[in-house]
Amino acid sequence: MKPDSQIEFFGLVELYHEGRLGKPLVKSYVELLSELSNRIYNLEDTYKRLVDIATEGRYNETVLWAVRERQVVGTAQATLLNIATPKVYVNEVVVTETLRKSGIGHDLMSLLLARIEAKWPQARRIELTSSPKRNTRSFYERLGFQTRETDVYSMKL
Length: 157
Ligand SMILES: CC(C)(COP(=O)(O)OP(=O)(O)OC[C@H]1O[C@@H](n2cnc3c(N)ncnc32)[C@H](O)[C@@H]1OP(=O)(O)O)[C@@H](O)C(=O)NCCC(=O)NCCS
Fold this sequence. Notes:
Layout: E1 8-11, H1 12-17, H2 23-33, H3 43-56, E2 61-68, E3 71-81, E4 87-95, H4 104-119, E5 125-127, H5 137-142
Parallel strand pairs: 4-5
Antiparallel strand pairs: 1-2, 2-3, 3-4
Helix pairs in contact: 2-3
């Protein structure tokens, strides 16, 4: 597939301040997230949380969206853990299935990495985990990530 010239990339905060963070856009974001996991996201709660992030700046989060025809078709997000050793976790990276393998994911992640460096210069490391079933190794390696021998522990709440 050819690179899609109708795709535009936005940070959540810019979109909010331009008055473009409407519920239809957030609905498409919630639908996109459901391609990543079986979890059902509540539209109202998600909208409120996004507005909180955009307005109050109390979360150490960066949320990027790829938008096409007023729909969120890709997203990537980063969170700064700013305690003893500042590090950044990247998660919720997803491109809608019909538009995959056209470079949107790479462009989104490149933009996210640039913003992480600019926003959080104190961070020493960026981490993310991905299930081997997802076959994302070459995608992340091309962006500069290296796999680490590590056990990942997780607990359901
Ligand atoms: C992982 C994911 C975000 C990648 O998004 P994407 O937009 O498909 O990413 P890109 O198009 O930039 O790259 C994907 C592949 O397409 C290839 N590609 C990119 N542009 C291409 C083009 N024009 N023609 C053919 N192939 C192309 C890339 O080389 C890359 O191959 P690789 O994975 O072997 O490195 C997407 O596959 C996805 O949402 N997967 C499901 C959710 C998921 O697994 N998320 C990661 C959780 S950690």
